[in-house]
Amino acid sequence: MTVEACLHRWPSCAFKTELIHGVLLFSGVFDERDVLAVERTYPGRRVLLNADGSIEVHPAGAARHRA
Fold first, then answer.
1. Per-residue burial over 14-26, b = 16 or more CB atoms within 10 Å of its CB, e = otherwise
2. CA–CA separation, 55 vs 49, rounded Å?
3. Which strands, in side-by-side order, build the sheet including 65-66?
4. Which of 4, 18, 40, 57 counts the most CB atoms within 10 A of its CB?
């Protein structure tokens, strides 16, 4: 992986980050590689990759879900 590719991966390419009712929402265009990075960053949290490419990080649970 090139330096340029690393600079464009999560979380640096997040357009917007919000906290909604205890759930982190990273707006952007993400994929499964980003989900793996989020799971390493927030261990023990439930990570959701939405159909629009955004990522949600829920406060509990380890099961991975896809919207």
1. beeeeeeeeebbb
2. 5
3. 16-20, 23-27, 55-58, 46-49, 65-66
4. 57
Amino acid making up residue 59: P
Name the pTM for this structure.
Answer: 0.70
20 is written with which tokens? 């909604």
Q: 8-48, pLDDT tens digit by residue?
A: 565 555 578 899 999 999 988 889 998 999 999 999 999 99
User: Residue 67, class by beta-carbon neighbours within 10 Å (0-12 exposed, 13-18 middle, 19+ buried)?
Assistant: exposed
